[in-house]
Amino acid sequence: MEQQEQKHEPGRRRVRLWTSRRLGVLLTTAVLVTATAGGGAATALPASPDAPRPPAATVVSTDLGAVRGKLETDARIFQGIPYAAPPTGELRWASPQPATPWRGVRDATRPGNRCAQAEGLIDRPSSTEDCLYLNVTTPSHRSERRLPVMVWIHGNGFINGAGSLYGAQQLASSGNVIVVSFNYRLGVFGFLAHPALDHGRARNLSGNFGLEDQQAALRWVKRNAAAFGGDPGNVTIFGESAGGTSVCAQLAAPGSAGLFQKAIVQSAQCAGRKWSPGPPTWFPLSRAEREQSGIEVAAKIGCSDPSTAADCLRDKPVDDLAKLSDVGVGSGPTFGGGLLPLSPERAFATGRFHHVPIVQGTTRDEHNLFTAAIETATGQQTTPASYREQLAALFSAADVERILARYPVSRFHSAGEALSTVVTDWAWGCPVLDQNRAVAEHTSLYAYEFADENAPWFSVLPKPNFPTGAFHGAELQYLFADEQLPGPLTPGQQQLSATMIRYWAQFASTGNPNGDGQPGWLPFQSRDHVQALAPAKIGSADLAQEHQCSFWNSVRS
């Protein structure tokens, strides 16, 4: 079968930080520019020997059948491998089911379908639910030992994206690791919570079918990693934005026990302040909130009768449903019973999560991306007046005056930059510091802040009237490659890319990012240490001072 695509408390009211509800999440993982490159007590990754090694085989036997990939100069790539049955027809809103075995050798040289999604600012739409495919990238040579496996969970707000968008050749080759990426159900197809969809075809309560897909992909990895040269007992999950939130959810989900041994969380909203104006999308929400939204979504499409809602919803066209993915409270994980008994925030605070080694971090200027996207979509730049209006929608009148005094427009290039800095500090920098402290009480944690103030901006979005800095998603171009985006990285940025790849791969190998020839990275437990990642400036970042957390702890939104 060819698998080608067919076609915190927000305050007294929510602030209008972007006009299109989908806009902010569409750009969360889009920054994939071609990456050209890439101590402590941990054992270093083995160096590549000078003597040539035999190439890896392009035909591999999985538990469902043989697949043929392609061998490139630096990597071996397999794409479009099914890990679960197509969730179509009666399997829409069902827990993932086993894929059907095949005879002969299946072509695995092209990506599988993207999961159903509406058109986004930079994402093309997909009208197919037959989308549960994964990709495997390995070094091009055979290895005498089983390699660490890194499983990437893509972001884009739980409503857009695909695993195949992230070129992992450099990460696999330079890091000497196996990289797996995959698609999972998005939007209403993956995260609609509705009482009529509970039980029956759902092993758990509804609302987390996308998370169940992620677990199914991890079980596939456990069964098949060895066939590709990977170690099924040494798996690291990692993801950014919605993908990072997914990592938090899997850390808190009892059903993911034993499916991974390490985790990397990049720019996730797992806890803290919910700054989103429309749906809080990738934030985990309570079952009561998600179910109320699910009932409203069903009513919007003519399925309000509880006794027939399930069949009614399954009869609706894909495109009609995809358009509803960002209405109400949007799409994202549901906690409270079922797959996710506790919110990640509560799980981290109480220690009821999987105590595996963790790397966790953010970018220094997270919200710059969202402000730039809003201004581009609306054609309106943030003004001093609209800056005040948006603060007033989030904070009390007294706190607005305090914030304006602390973050006056006169200190910045524009009102848009002032707003971006406020939201970055309040909703990203300080909450992740709190989360670091909670997690570090229970397990080994290495924290970072990506801080390249000159990180390349991507081509599909005009630059705003302020420096873009280390924006949300900026670090992805240092780990992955994508031909749609410009690059290239400067020599200093190439070196940072090589360093980051080495850190990530070393952590996947040993649970400690330190290795020979690398700048030392202290654990967070050592005086709240956060590794600052910037060209020629890898050292320590003081999140509390940089993001003015003492001030924000005094603000009650």
Name the poorly predicted regions. Answer: 1-44, 46-50, 276-281
Please count the helical segments: 16
Structural class by sheet pairing and helices? alpha/beta
How is the biggest beta sheet arranged? 11 strands, mixed
Q: What radius of gyration results from the CA coordinates?
A: 22 Å
Question: How much is the average pLDDT?
Answer: 89
Gross morphology? globular
Helical proportion, percent range? 25-40%
| Strand arrangement across the biggest beta sheet | 3-4-6-8-7-9-10-13-14-15-16
Straight-line N-to-C gap = 53 Å
- Number-wise, the strands total 16
Strand fraction? 5-15%
Top keywords for this entry?
14% strand; 16 helices; 16 strands; alpha/beta
Describe what you observe in this structure:
The chain is an alpha/beta fold and 557 residues long. The chain is built from 16 helices and 16 strands. The chain has helices at 23-26, 169-175, 187-191, 209-224, 242-252, 287-300, 309-315, 318-322, 344-350, 368-378, 384-394, 397-406, 415-440, 491-510, 543-546, 549-553; strands spanning 59-61, 66-68, 70-71, 75-82, 105-107, 133-139, 147-153, 178-182, 230-240, 262-266, 285-286, 334-335, 358-363, 445-450, 530-533, 539-540. Helix 2 (169-175) packs across helix 14 (491-510), helix 10 runs antiparallel to helix 13 and helix 11 (384-394) packs parallel to helix 13. The longest helix is centred in the last third of the chain and has 26 residues, at 415-440. It is globular. Residues 1-44, 46-50 and 276-281 have low confidence and may be disordered.
